[in-house]
Known about the structure:
Blueprint: H1 11-30, H2 34-59
Amino acid sequence: xxxxxxxxxxxxxxxxxxxxxxxxxxxxxxxxxxxxxxxxxxxxxxxxxxxxxxxxxxxxxxxxxxx
Length: 67
């Protein structure tokens, strides 16, 4: 019997995470920390490219059900 790890996220967690990231970005912009905000955006884009482009599309090691 093969064990397949999985996770299910409640929509509220996703919305709260997005809200926190927008709040943090707003604080960085208000404090004129433009370089920190730029690196944060670049890091998020890099993470998306590796996770979605690499693991999901190229390698096929991730599956999405019910989205």
